[in-house]
Each structure stands twice: as C-alpha cells, then as structure tokens.
Design a protein that fits this description.
single chain; about 250 residues; alpha/beta; Collagenase (Catalytic Domain); five-stranded mixed beta sheet; two-stranded antiparallel sheet; 7 helices; about 25% helix
Length: about 250
C-alpha cells in the first residue's frame, strides 16, 4: 500500500487552510463549490475560461493538466480556454484569505458576466498566513497556490518533486471549486474522510487527505495522485444530472 509520510500539506492543510472563511457578499462571490453546476452543466455557460494570474517568477506548471481534468468532468461544448497573465499583486509576503479574494476581484472580472464561465487561479509570491498551507479556495471562482510553500514541501531526495506537488495541489483546489468532497452536496458514497471534512479517504484520489509524521521530516513515497477517483467522478456526474441535490449555487 502506498505510504504517505507526512503531510499532504501537499494536498492542503486542514479545513482552515483548504477553505477560508467565505462570505456571500453583494458581489455574490459565493463559496467553494458555488459554481460547480455552472461548470458541470452547459445550460447557461457553454464555454469556460481559466485565468492563471501569477507573479513574476511564479509561472504555473499545471495549466494544461487542470484544463484536461476539468474537460473530463464538465460540459463545455464551446471549449475551455486557458489565459495566463503575469500580475503584480503588490501584496506583502504573507497572504490572508481576504488578500486572495481582494486580489482576484481587483485583477479579474465577473465570473458569470457572459455565456463564458470564468475561474481564477492565483500564483502569488509569499506564503499563506498558515505557512503549512499550499493551496486555498476562497470563493466560488478563486483559488491560490503558494509556490514558495510548495517548493519547501518537496520530499527528501526530490521525491515527490515540487513539480509533482504543484500539479497535485492545483488539481486538488480545482476539485474544491467543483464542490468536492461534499462541500455543496451529500454523496451517497462514504468516501469523505471523517477527520478531514471536504477530503477523500482514498489515497489514490487527488482529493485525499492523509497525515503521518515522524522526526525525520515530511515526505511521500509512491506516486502522488493528480486525478479524481471513481467516487469523485460519480459525485460530479450525479451533481451534473441532478441526481445529487446541490446547495449554495450562484447559478443553477
């Protein structure tokens, strides 16, 4: 059995890390998963654009992988477009959830302003307020990946590499925008880790959360998953078909 020796700090930290405190404000920014149906269905949004906003020197490496993973589960007959923009966020080295939200809405546009659904992935310099957090979902269309922390999370002897970690974390956070696991629905499949709400109990899912610690350091042996497992995909299909009722949707 694949062993994970500490921290899928990699696949986020706890609930306080992976998901920030999110408010439904007047701009209807929503909660992670709040635009899940907008992605999974094509009734309103036939196209999708994923915006990667990154600080100089923090270029994201998982753009095409994220596009592939979302294409696999979302109904977008008009296609999914990737946009990359180098951005000066002008934020201090420590980021709060509010900083991420404010930066996204300062540098990005309306998530639902046309027949195109817009999601924003930020790659800023610096770390989250909890330095163990590698990625955070802050509203229905926004995540941030903290590459400085990702680099620190690289395993002993370079396995997993920081590149593997970044790919896994980026897909993981995209999964939270899709509502995984049980963020805006209740799965009939018992695959949520009871000790880590919002995460899978399957070590082969990119949504998995597992922690084992020792005195030597933090590392993972084996392949780091970067795909949704069959239970994740079953949930997403059930949400898309209407079989699973979804709450907190900004559009449905």
């Amino acid at each position: 059995m694949r062993k994970y020796l500490l921290v899928i700090l990699l696949l986020t930290s706890s609930m306080s890390g992976c998901f920030s405190d999110v408010l439904n404000d007047d701009e209807k920014r929503g909660i992670p998963g709040g635009l899940a149906l907008a992605c999974l269905q094509d009734d309103k949004f036939e196209k999708m654009e994923i915006h990667f906003l990154y600080e100089n020197g923090y270029d994201p490496i998982a753009k095409e992988l994220v596009k592939t993973r979302i294409q696999d589960v979302c109904d977008k007959p008009g296609g999914i477009k990737i946009t990359s923009v180098e951005t000066d966020f002008s934020i201090d080295s420590v980021w709060s959830s509010d900083d991420v939200r404010d930066a996204r809405w300062k540098h990005g546009g309306n998530a639902m302003g046309s027949d195109t659904l817009h999601w924003y992935f930020l790659f800023p310099a610096g770390t989250y307020t909890d330095e163990s957090v590698l990625g955070v979902a802050v509203d229905a269309s926004t995540i941030a990946i903290f590459k400085d922390s990702v680099d620190e999370a690289e395993g002993f002897f370079g396995r997993p590499s920081s590149e593997e970690v970044e790919r896994a974390v980026t897909v993981h956070e995209a999964g939270h925008l899709l509502g995984l696991v049980n963020l805006v629905y209740q799965s009939p499949i018992p695959h949520e880790d009871p000790n880590h709400p919002g995460h899978s109990n399957n070590e082969d899912s990119v949504m998995y959360w597992a922690i084992e610690s020792n005195d030597v350091g933090n590392f993972i042996s084996g392949d780091l998953p970067d795909q949704f497992d069959n239970d994740d995909k079953s949930d997403l299909a059930g949400m898309a078909s209407g079989e699973l009722e979804c709450s907190d949707q900004l559009w449905s």
